[in-house]
Specification:
The protein is mainly beta. It is built from no helices and six strands. The strands form two sheets. Strands 1-2-3 form a three-stranded antiparallel sheet, with no helix packed on it. A hairpin with a 6-residue loop joins strand 1 and strand 2.
C-alpha cells in the first residue's frame, strides 16, 4: 500500500515513512517531512531515487538541493524487538595452557 508522495506506512508503528538509499547501498527509513533537528541530509538524485547521508563534522552543512531529515528509527513509537539471544561473535579460542616444556 503506497500513500501520497512516495510514502509507505512503517511496519511497526504505521506512521508514514520514505525509504532512502545510503552511500553504502543500504536502505534507511526517513520521516517524510523535513525536520530541523534531523541529523541526515536527504536529496533526490538524477534518477529520482531518494538518497541520504549523515551530517558529519567533515560535512556538517547541507549542500545543493539537500534537506534535513530525521531517521525514522529515532522517532518510531514501536521499535522492533531486540533479539532474545545475543549474537555470537567469532573470536580466538583459548588453547589449554601447557606450561614450559623443554
Amino acid at each position: 500500500m503506497t500513500t501520497p508522495h512516495g510514502t509507505v506506512p512503517c511496519p511497526s508503528c504505521g506512521q508514514p515513512i520514505r525509504w532512502a538509499v545510503t552511500a553504502a547501498g543500504r536502505r534507511q527509513a526517513l520521516n517524510p517531512d523535513p525536520d530541523a533537528a534531523g541529523n541526515s541530509a536527504a536529496y533526490t538524485d538524477g534518477t529520482g531515487r531518494l538518497r541520504v547521508r549523515a551530517l558529519t563534522t567533515e560535512r556538517p552543512a547541507l549542500e545543493h538541493a539537500e534537506w534535513r531529515a530525521m531517521p525514522h528509527a529515532a522517532t518510531c513509537t514501536r521499535p522492533r524487538p531486540r533479539r532474545s539471544v545475543p549474537r555470537q561473535t567469532p573470536g580466538v579460542r583459548p588453547t589449554p595452557w601447557r606450561g614450559w616444556q623443554r
